[in-house]
Design a protein that fits this description.
980 residues; Immunoglobulin-like; flat; Methylamine Dehydrogenase, Chain H; 6-stranded mixed beta sheet; single chain; 7 helices; mainly beta
């Protein structure tokens, strides 16, 4: 299948390999954020600025001093005599000074709104104690304050003012200051002269320059001075100027800052902003442009720039005559030195060059800070879909089904595969320099893949080699394992076995639903050997034992077009039409146009991380790449809660502290994230203790707190900037809603004490009554004993009377004993045996029982003990209708004394009804009600198997026993109040 090219085609190929070159410096293009009077500035003329440790900006304007938090401007000079503010200086002690026409003031920054206190006054006529239109402020390493005045310099040392008049030719000249590495103070004057302070005087250098505006020390022995041009001033070890070199002719350089060891930004009066680079003692400049719109590069909206400020996180601030400007680098930038059209494939050479196909072929090479784009193959050749290179050959596949390679020193070759299929859309080289490729079908399906070995032999891998579906992508792991992925739910992943020259199917069953047209577009192998697959149905992860779908939140089931693994283990993926996502340990970061991408639509398999971990991605509108290597999304600065409000009160909270909220009243809090721009920030909060889920905040700058129940809560607030930032750390305060006074612990203690006192009083009264009853009973026993002793006659009548008296005596004695013992009884089970034993002293009884009447269920819960047993039996006896003797006693509140139950029960209940007593029972029974407050609460009963066996138990004895049991049982709580 190898065919040589005709001489004409060869000649044409050599012509198109002659390329054109364009370069692009990515560091001279910034995203621009602008603020002016429409946004709250009092004036568009900005003179100076300072950023404090919390991120707030202090900005001097021609109409006041403002405090800026990224969202709102607050004028803090409304009460000042002068509104024309100029220079800001942070002193070594941390205080902040600002100059204005009325003098120099100190900014007191202790509350939420800073205020001004006059530090040194200015007057129309300068004096030994006052200033005269102060301008630039500077503090040297000795703590001395230097102030520029029209035509003179003022020194403030130990609160003593010393003035040095210098400019006699033009009283309007002003000065800027710098201190070299030797501790010498230098002053540059707008008239072009440079002064050195020595022995309490300023000595001018012999050499004059053209209208110097700003001077800065760069190294121990070097100064840079700017005006109508930029000069380098060299100082020797004797601290004398030995050389001056003009580095640039840019006019009107008003200020400059150092970006790195050899890079500077230069602000001009009327020419905008430039970047200067010192390379091999050559200083070159390039103009800085705006790249706010990824589709085009434009001039900055500023021409006159007074001051520059390089911040650590928020970019470069510009003080201009059109307001406040901020320059920020995007995460991504598109390469404008190549056509802005669809990219089909990307690859990296061993030298680190990037090759891309977009019909033609381009190579991107790094030269210092620039990327140089070279057209290797023109688009009017066969339309190129794929490209890859190694040390020996540049391979590319075209839309017509041919593979080409450029072989230095040899003839160019083509492998014609058009009889196998259509366009060759993917090619890759393994470590053995085998070229594997994937081809689109034409009029017949294609199964498997193919390769060309280093000797240019073609080998087809289809069903006989273990492949059962068309392969779309092949990737090799770091340890040399080659994987192939393609189409189908059961044929999507394979591994190549080099020894047997076969593929084996690794496709595990999918435990989740996928579409009928499921296929793998791209894949990547991480450091652990896991295979990450970009599929039509989400991002899948294979680890030889399982296959899962990664949790991408709302994007979990979206089509993933490309995937790669970064050096830190994070996964980068191009997802449908949403842009790029960085996925790391379950955390997602989305990158789209806000991050600098020219479009969110990325082509299949067009995502790659190079050897520096720089991200390259081919979109439908050209090539984009990350401006940083090893890119890690920055954390959004932590937001702050400035005010906690409820009803008519408000407090300024401090993080980590606890604050009280009122009950049944809605509260709110004011918040902001001090970042720039602050308007591109989303917020979320949660109240731990109320709801652990995060809630997105839609109200700004205030969020309502729901009415909370009494308890302790934790309020957490987070922020996230747009454009690839991750959520900030939480700002946390504690909130406490107190219980009403009647629900406090103190109130509960008083409640318990009151109840204890009440119970104690009731017990005292009951015990007192019990003692009186006991005394009355003992008195009765004593009188009956006296009667017995007086009976001395032994006639039959007297003997019968004596027996009755003895029976009464025993009855009373038994009642007294029961009365004493019953005090220690706390349950039915313990009560029944005691009474049973005592009653057996009077007469033999077969059964003793006592029961509680349960009114709601119309039943009696009985505890009873029988002769010859120590066990107390319990049972529940229903007393519905008229079938129960116990029920009759409960209803009528009268006692029954039956000498023969069998013969007498029909007097009280109808015959043939079911009885709780055996109808064949021939013995006797006594049943008496327990009555409390005229309500039947239970029964007490005795049984004996003999007729009239209970003749020694008198009705008065049972009445007294029933009364005692009712009283004691209620007193001891055996009968529950709810049962009465």
């Amino acid at each position: 299948m190898l065919r040589g090219l005709s001489r004409l085609v060869l000649y044409f190929l050599f012509l198109i390999v002659v390329f054109t070159t364009q370069s692009q410096d990515l560091k001279t293009q910034y995203r621009v954020i602008s603020y002016d009077t429409k946004d709250g500035l009092p004036s568009n003329q900005i003179r100076d600025f300072y950023q404090d440790s919390l991120g707030y900006m202090f900005i001097t304007t021609d109409a006041g001093l403002v405090h800026f938090n990224g969202t709102h401007f607050t004028n803090i000079s409304s009460g000042s005599v002068s509104q024309y503010f100029r220079s800001l200086l942070k002193k070594s002690d941390g205080s902040l000074l600002v100059s204005h026409d009325a003098g120099v003031s100190e900014i007191i920054n202790k509350g939420r709104k800073p205020k001004l206190e006059l530090w040194l006054a200015a007057t129309i006529q300068p004096s030994d104690t006052t200033l005269y239109y102060p301008g630039n402020l500077f503090q040297d390493s000795n703590g001395i304050i230097w102030i520029s005045e029209p035509g003179s310099i003022v020194k403030i040392k130990d609160k003593k003012l010393t003035r040095y008049p210098l400019s006699v030719d033009n009283g309007h000249n002003t000065f800027s200051f710098a201190e070299d590495g030797f501790g010498n103070l230098w002053a540059a004057c707008t008239n072009g002269k440079v002064y050195k302070y020595d022995q309490n005087e300023f000595e001018p250098l012999k050499q004059s320059f053209d209208s110097l505006i700003y001077i800065m020390a760069t190294d121990q022995n070097q100064l840079l001075a700017g005006g109508n041009g930029l000069w380098s001033l060299q100082i020797n070890s004797e601290q004398k100027l030995i050389a001056s070199t003009r580095l640039s002719d840019i006019p009107g350089i008003r200020h400059f800052i150092r970006l790195s060891d050899n890079e500077y930004l230069l602000a001009t009066v009327s020419k905008g902003l430039y970047k200067g680079i010192m390379v091999n003692h050559q200083f070159t400049t390039e103009k800085v442009f705006s790249h706010s719109d990824p589709h085009r590069v434009e001039e900055l909206p500023y021409t006159s720039i007074d001051k520059l400020l390089l911040t650590e996180k928020d970019g470069i601030f510009l003080a201009t005559d059109r307001g406040l400007g901020i320059l920020q680098s995007n995460f991504f930038d598109n390469i404008r030195s190549v056509p802005q059209q669809l990219v089909y494939s990307l690859s990296e050479s061993p030298e680190g060059d990037i090759y891309m196909s977009m019909g033609g072929i381009y190579r991107l090479s790094r030269v210092q800070n620039n990327l140089k784009a070279q057209q290797i193959l023109a688009q009017d050749h066969n339309f190129v879909l794929s490209v890859v290179t190694d040390e020996e050959r540049l391979w590319f596949g075209d839309v017509d089904g041919s593979l080409w390679y450029l072989d230095p020193g040899k003839k160019e070759k083509r492998v014609d595969l058009s009889n196998r299929g259509g366009g060759i859309f993917y090619i890759t080289l393994d470590k053995g320099h085998n070229l594997w490729f994937c081809q689109a079908p034409t009029d017949k399906p294609i199964v498997g893949t193919a390769k060309i070995d280093p000797d240019l032999n073609l080998r087809i891998y289809s069903r006989e080699k273990g492949l059962e579906s068309r392969i779309l992508v092949l990737k090799e792991s770091a340890n040399g394992i080659l994987y192939a992925a393609g189409i189908g739910k059961e044929t999507y992943l394979y591994r190549y076995l080099e020894d047997s020259d076969q593929f084996i199917n690794l496709s595990l069953p999918l435990s989740f639903n996928v579409s009928a047209g499921f296929e793998v577009h791209d894949m990547a192998i991480d450091h652990y050997g896991q295979v990450w697959m970009a599929t039509t149905d989400g991002l899948l992860v294979y680890d030889s034992e399982s296959i899962i779908r990664a949790d991408l939140g709302d994007y979990s089931e979206q089509e993933v077009r490309a995937v790669d693994v970064a050096g830190d283990g994070s996964i980068w993926l191009a997802i449908d039409t949403y842009g790029l996502i960085r996925y790391d340990k379950g955390i997602l970061n989305l990158f789209d146009e806000q991050s600098g991408l020219v479009t969110r639509i990325i082509n299949y398999r067009c995502l790659m991380l190079d050897y520096e971990d720089r991200i390259w991605t081919g979109t439908v509108e050209g090539l984009a790449h990350s401006q940083m290597t090893n890119i890690k999304p920055p954390v959004t600065p932590k937001p702050k809660i400035f005010k906690l409000k409820s009803a008519n009160t408000s407090v300024t909270p401090s993080e980590g502290m606890s604050y009280d909220l009122p009950r049944k009243i809605q509260s709110s809090f004011e918040f902001a994230c001090i970042t720039y721009p602050g308007r591109e920030v989303e917020y979320r909060y949660r109240l731990v203790g109320f709801d652990r889920n995060w809630a997105v905040i839609t109200e700004r700058p205030q969020q309502t707190i729901p009415v909370l129940a009494p308890g302790e809560y934790q309020l957490e607030l987070q922020a996230r900037k747009e454009g690839g930032y991750i959520w900030s750390d939480s700002y946390v305060i504690s909130l406490v809603v107190h219980k009403p006074w009647f629900m406090t612990n103190t109130a509960y203690i008083f409640y318990i004490l009151g109840i204890l006192i009440l119970v104690w009083g009731i017990v005292r009264l009951s015990v007192h009554k019990l003692r009186k009853d006991k005394q009355a009973l003992e008195k009765l026993v004593h009188s009956q004993t006296k009667v017995i002793n007086e009976i001395e006659s032994d006639t039959p009548a007297n003997q019968s009377a004596t027996q009755e008296v003895e029976m009464a005596y025993h009855n009373l004695e038994t009642l007294a004993i029961i009365s004493r013992k019953i005090e220690a009884i706390d349950s039915w089970e313990n009560l029944a045996p005691v009474i049973f034993d005592e009653l057996n002293r009077i007469t033999d009884i077969t059964t003793f029982g006592i029961g509680t009447y349960i009114r709601e269920e119309n039943c009696i819960e009985i505890c009873k003990i029988r002769e010859g047993s120590s066990r107390v039996d319990s049972e529940t006896v229903p007393i519905s209708g008229y079938s129960s003797l116990l029920g009759w006693v409960i209803r009528h509140q009268k006692g029954l004394n039956l000498k023969s139950v069998k013969n007498e029960y029909t007097q009280y209940i109808p015959r043939n009804n079911d009885l709780e007593i055996d109808p064949d029972f021939t013995g006797s029974s006594i049943i008496y009600p327990l009555i409390h407050k005229n309500i039947s609460t239970g029964v007490v009963f005795l049984e004996d198997w003999k007729e009239n066996g209970l003749k020694h138990i008198s009705p008065s004895f049972m009445q007294t026993l029933a009364a005692q049991l009712s009283f004691y049982l209620e007193l001891e709580g055996i009968i529950k109040p709810g049962e009465l």
